[in-house]
Amino acid sequence: MKASDVGTRDSGLGTREPRRGRRPRLFAERVALVVLLAAVLATPAVAQELQVDDFKSDRPTPRTASGKPDLSGYWKGTRQTKPGGNIGKDLPGWKLPLTPAGEAALEHNLTATVDPEALCIIGGIPRHNASGLPFEVLQGANKIAFLYWYSYYRLIPIDANRKHSDDPDPSFFGEEIGRWEGDTLVIDSIGFKGEKVWIDENANPHSDALHVVERWTRPDADHIHVETLIEDPKFYTKPFTYSRTWVLGKPGEEIQEYSCSENNVNRDHLGFGPGPIRKDGTRGYEDPAPLPPPVPRTAKPGQK
Amino acid sequence: MKFKLLAVVVGIVAVALASARPLQAHHSFAAQYDGSKAIRLTGVLTKIEWTNPHTYFYIDVKEPDGKVVQWGLEAGSPGALSRRGFKRGDLKIGDTIIVDGYRSRDGSHLADARRVTLPDGRIVSGASAGDGGPQ
Asked: Minimal Cα distance from B72: which residue of A?
């Protein structure tokens, strides 16, 4: 093909005879399509995280027979949750109001503990709400289930008359009680573990004095939202909040089997803490060494 | 024609969005791997573990002095890899593959397989999405 062929009917790229009445696709159009397709295909799946704004929804909130919002669905995180995995996301500079005991607990987590989730220990609440992992909700009349990857779940009674126990046995999700306030499902939780827990991916701490109040809403069919109040007078000088929105997964998407302990080779190789925290509040190296350049497609590993 | 082109473009973008995958990570990349120690390993596959929370495959790498060393290579979970087109059948014992990744901080012969070049020359991502590692 010659340069002068570009944009002509005889560009050399379309040898097939065009159908009657159909204009052959211009070379420029073909190039545009190929470039666009290549760009889409070359974009790593990890970089295709959805934006909440990508899903302007005009579908109304689904409701149960009793008229309450139905929170059921498979919910996926979005790129708008920044910094991901950081429970201080909504605070200025992501600065948590740690007490001296909280500072000591953070230092301990960073220097003397391996990420409990990486050891296949339940992350609990509020960590699961700050996680990048999707989750699934199944709502019944008097009980609601949150299903998580790693085959974890929590079952929460919805009962406005239920009170917390005087001394609940500590657990990772805590003693949870749900109630409706209008169209908002409020989940009030106490009775948390104080050991082998990180409150988020960044190794921030929480104590057994943790009290979490989650306020869940489904403003339309395609979004679920939580406003979380976190109180922990042992480790934090004042309560703080964490809010987040997820988008509805596609039909057929659901939690799959994920046996965390099946082959946890990491157990013997992980260091303490999450590693360095970047300036943007996420985990990782600021300036990692680049990988070697990709092997040209023409050169195959088995060839000399 | 313009309408058709627009329809195709919209369709491609819709497919791209629909194929978006959630972030999933079992552990922070930096908790285990050294971001300053990028490495390329070429070796023969001896074992494949298509398991959670990560897949692992093992290759025999011949060092300059002729000594053969087994390396363990960590990749994303089976579900994450298969969704991006990296299937269990893409790896076969005896294959020679090239792995670009990062060494474990503890100095063991374990590396995070960020990029895998398969015997047919196809390059696939082995990264654990959302782990904070280089993408």
From this structure: A265
How far is the C-alpha of A6 from the C-alpha of A35, rounded, in Å? Answer: 16
Confidence of residue A4 (pLDDT cuts 50, 70, 90): very low
Inform me whether the pLDDT recorded for B7 exceeds 90: no
What number is the ipTM of this complex?
0.80
Which residues of chain B from 93 to 112 reach within 8 Å of chain A, CB to CB? 95-98, 100-102, 104-106, 108, 110
Give the domains, in start order, of chain A with CATH numbers: 7-47 (no CATH), 52-268 (2.40.128.20)
Q: Do residues A291 and B134 touch, judged by C-beta distance below 8 A?
A: yes
Mutate one of A117, A269, A304 to test the B interface: name it (highest B CB count within 10 A): A269
pLDDT of amino acid A95: 97
Residues of B in contact with A298 (CB under 8 A): 121
Kindly determine whether residue B25 and residue A47, on different chains, have CB atoms separated by under 8 Å. Answer: no
* Nearest by CB: B130 against A132, A250, A270: A132
Residue B46 lies in a domain: yes
Q: In this predicted structure, what is the pLDDT of residue B105?
A: 96
- Omega of the bond prior to B64 within 30 degrees of 0, cis? no
The CATH number for B75's domain is: 2.40.50.140
Rounded CA gap, A220 and B48, in Å? 44
Establish if B24 touches chain A: CB-CB under 8 angstroms. yes
| Residue A2: CB atoms within 10 Å | 9
Alpha-carbon distance A116 to A193, whole Å? 12
Q: What are the chain A neighbours of B122 within 8 Å (beta carbons)?
A: 297
Total domains present in chain B: 1
| Beta strands at B110-117 and B68-75: parallel, antiparallel or unpaired | parallel
Closest approach of B69 to chain A, Cα-based (Å): 18
pTM of the model: 0.81
For residue B101, the enclosing domain spans 27-125
* Position B21 in a domain: no
Do A226 and A216 meet the contact criterion of CB atoms below 8 Å apart? Answer: yes
